Amino acid sequence: MSEFKLHQLVTNLLQSLPNKNTPEELVEFLQNHVDVNNQTSFMAVQSNINYLAQQSSNPQSFAMKYDDLKRKNVDSLGLFVQLIHLISEDRGIKDFLERNVKRSSPSCSNTKMTKDDLPQVKHRLKSAKARMSTKHDISSLLNRSGPPIPSTPSVASWVQRRPSMSWDFSSRTSITTSHPINNIPATSQENILINDLLNILIGLPANYIEAQELKDPYESREFIINEHVDPSLRQLVKQILPLASHYSIVQRFTEEKMRFEFGQVNNALAECMSAIIVDYTLFITQLESEFQSGNLTLHKMWYYIQKNFHSLGIVSDIATTINKSESCGGKVLSLLHENIAGYIGDSRAQDLCVTLMQAACVPYMKMLGMWIYKGIISDPIHEFLVEDNEVVQKEDMPVDYSADYWDKKYTIRRERIPKFLEPVFGIILKAGKYLNVIRQCGKSLSNKVQVIEYKKEEKHYIEAIKKAYKYASETLLDLVMKEQDLLGRLRSVKHYFLLDQGDFIVTFLTLCEKVLSKDVADVVQARLDSLLDLALRLSSAVNDPYKDDLRTELLQIDLLTQMKKILSIETYEEQNYRSVKKSNTLLAIESFSFSYEVRWPLSLIFNKNSLACYQMIFRHLFYCKYVERMVCQVWRSNKVAKSFPLSAARQYRSAFALRQRMLHCVQNLEYHMMVEVIEPHWCVFLQKISKVSNVDEILDCHNHFLNMCLKDCMLTITNLLVIITKLLSICVSFCKFMQRTQRYFVEAELGSLPNSFCESFNQGEAVQQDGPNDADTGSFEDSIAKYDLEFTATLMQLLDLINNIDRKDSDHDRLFNLLYRLDFNSYYTGKFHRMGLDHLKQDASG
How far apart are CA 388 and CA 369, in angstroms? Predict the structure, then answer.
């Protein structure tokens, strides 16, 4: 179970129970203290059953109900018993449940009926009567043929429509009038009883042995022996009659399960049981021949039926278990496999179970073969362990593809997995999925469908499955790595999304700087696309064969809101971010991102989820590059101050020092993310991907690479991301302030110089025409001091957050390198510790 699913279940549970704990605390407790792989032992279950039976008002009924559920092979029955046992020992939960039961129980004492209610009551009584009569008619048929009519569409059941066709004691079969057996001597009664037994043993009515009607279609049939039969003969007949009960159960099973809506596995098993019934009928015919020749007595009959008594009893038990558990498909095979293991000391019984198993496995193994050799599911009754959910249409795959295909298109249904295939169900799923991808690429499959048979030695079918999986994985891996050039695609994505192509980013920023500084509503998407195409042609990216797949995109929310929305999934804050709408105040630089068009089958790797991760990393890096460029432009424009007199230049010293500290901070952030995080993870990723053996391993390596980059770039740590975003916004505000004021101090200090000199420092740079800022209301020195204080306080918060991270936690060890770079030679911690850090924090907060 995933962590998100566990969190959701715990949250729903806490909403129903009075508890002060938070979902996060309970989830952490469950993950640390509960072993999901722990299986309840048989002795522990029996101990719990005995305890619960003693506590119940009717111990015998409780034990019978447990035995009934056990025969039905209910999943996780032992764990449910353990849960009930724990609840029974917790007085608080018992009191809470009792209060809820009393609160929810309807009270009929206060219900009053008026004359207006009479027509409605009359109508309900008529409807109930009609339903009861219908049920009675159906039950009369069920007593003849056994099983109820399934709700699924099916062909007509001739056994139900023509009860006389059934070989299971049809009441419509004529019975000859019998004479009172008490008038017949005891020596002659034996021949009469043998004749009756020969009829009873093949489902025909008899004179002095009566088959009882069934109350339940799957119960064992009972018989009544005439009370005037000699006691010694009665005892012998009682010993033989269970064979007729076994026959009745098997006959009902075959008559019902032959219908196709019960599945191909049940059909095949019923056919095999029919063959056993045919052999059994032949045996009864031989007994009848012996009887006609006068060589058969009840004692001899009891001796002759021993072999069939044992084998038919085993078949009857299997049929009863399948009927009561309503099993089909893989669950039937699991029950048969358990019986094979259960009769390990009885070779004859085990061989019989193997015969039934091999017959029932034939259609299932055909489905398995079509799946692992051709990637095709032929499962009309939903018996196979793999299910096609059809979440993505084939014609939509090359254009708009999502990760839902790989994760949800084909899924494992655990209740349909046969026990003997549990060790390999994972590679069974992958083999068919790989072949589906290959077929949808238009490639032909050279492998042939091999016949897979069930054997007691599992190596026969396990080796065949592993061989088919090896072919599928190698074929798809070769298609993705060589024909589709996966490594080339990965390098292309790294060039653009991870800013690996430096000259392209510089060229693109130079061309798009004016456009990106506008409001997102004022930006024309086609303009950005044309500038992107021009940047690709003017830079070294022109040599990239996949450059034409790069696109521009303007997202509706900024990066910080996007990350908070993602990180709030399955938490209390999710509702706050679920209804986030498009902001009208976003700048283009805050909403800009690249997108990448990838076609099948590489869209398996570059799906929407992975591209979204690339976009988040790109937006973070690109915005840092944009801020760095703005700070560098301020530096270029401030070079004119070198011509100022010393007395005039001193007032700008603090602004230039702050600018340099901002540039140092932004460049070290970029260095940390690009050199210390992305590049090492990229090298490890390439090493891993060179050793993979299937596409699933590629997906795992790729997802791990992206997750590590997101984490070490501080995108998944909300409080750090908020501080970094605030730092960058302070830098942007400072740069805009300097751009607004630079023209004034240049004119003041260099008014006597030519205009060409005054404009040379700002050639090609656009002066931002923003509205008045709070920092502009005071003097230049006061504004710079305010920016300095705000920047320093925010940076100190960032350093404190990083420093407070547990150093023993290896998940964030790279962040400490950033700490040492930003606080080189303890510049901030030493200087402001001496000045009074508490005073600084107080000034910053208020």
Answer: 16
Q: What residue type is 52 in one-letter code?
A: L
Q: 726, 634 in Cβ contact below 8 A?
A: no
User: Are 312 and 276 within 8 A, CB to CB?
Assistant: yes
List % helix, strand, coil for the chain (3-state, nearest 5): 70, 5, 30
Contact between residue 669 and residue 677 where contact means Cβ atoms under 8 Å apart: no
* Strand 386-388 relative to strand 410-412, pairing: antiparallel
User: Quick count: other Cβ atoms within 10 Å of Cβ 568?
Assistant: 16
Structure tokens at 336: 């048969």
Tokens read off for 337: 């496999």
Residues 6+ apart with CB under 8 A from 518: 587, 588
289-318 pLDDT per residue, tens: 988 888 888 899 899 989 888 999 999 999
Bigger pLDDT: 619 vs 800? 619
DSSP annotation string for 114-144: -GGGHHHHHHHHHHHHHHHHHHHHHHHHHHH
Helix (H) or strand (E) holding 386, with range, is strand 386-388
Residue type, 565: K
Alpha-carbon span 434 to 478, nearest angstrom: 12
User: How far apart (Å, rounded) are the C-alpha atoms in residues 418 and 339?
Assistant: 13
Q: pLDDT tens-digit profile of 426-440?
A: 889 888 888 888 888
User: What amino acid is encoded at 301 in this protein?
Assistant: M
| Amino acid symbol at 826 | S
Distance CA 575, CA 358 (A): 54
* CA proximity to 329, closest of 261, 271, 388: 261
Residues of 645-659 as b/e, b for ≥16 C-beta within 10 angstroms? eeeeeeebeebbebb
How far is the first Cα of the chain from the last one, in angstroms, to the nearest whole number? 47
Burial of 431: CB neighbours in 10 Å, binned 0-12, 13-18, 19+: buried
CA 18/CA 1 separation, integer angstroms? 25
CB 438 within 8 A of CB 399: no
pLDDT digits (tens, 9 = 90+) for 406-428: 677 888 888 888 888 888 888 89
- What residues contact residue 506 under an 8 Å CB cut-off, 6+ apart? none
> Cis omega before residue 398 (within 30°)?
no
Reduced to 3 states (helix: H, G, I; strand: E, B; else coil), residue 790 is: helix
The mean pLDDT value of the chain amounts to 77
E strands in 592-699: 592-596
* Count of other CB atoms within 10 angstroms of residue 332: 29
User: 825: phi > 0 → left, psi -120 to 50 → alpha, else beta; which?
Assistant: left
CB burial readout 575-601, b (16+ within 10 A) else e: eebeeeeeeeebbbbbbbbbbbebebb
DSSP code for 93: H
Contact 617, 715 (CB under 8 A): yes
As a whole number of angstroms, the distance between CA 432 and CA 426 comes to 10
Helix (H) or strand (E) holding 553: strand 550-554
Residue type for position 351: D
DSSP H or E stretch at residue 79: helix 77-89
Answer yes or no: are the C-beta atoms of 445 and 371 closer than 8 Å. Answer: no
Six token digits for residue 846: 């208020």
Contacts for 678-681 with beta carbons within 8 Å, 24 or more apart?
Answer: 678/498, 678/617, 678/709, 678/713, 681/705, 681/708, 681/709, 681/712
| Angle formed at CA 11 by CA 5 and CA 14, multiple of 5 degrees | 145
Helix 608-637 crosses helix 486-497 at what angle (to 10 degrees)? Answer: 40
User: Is residue 299 classed as helix, strand or coil in its secondary structure?
Assistant: helix
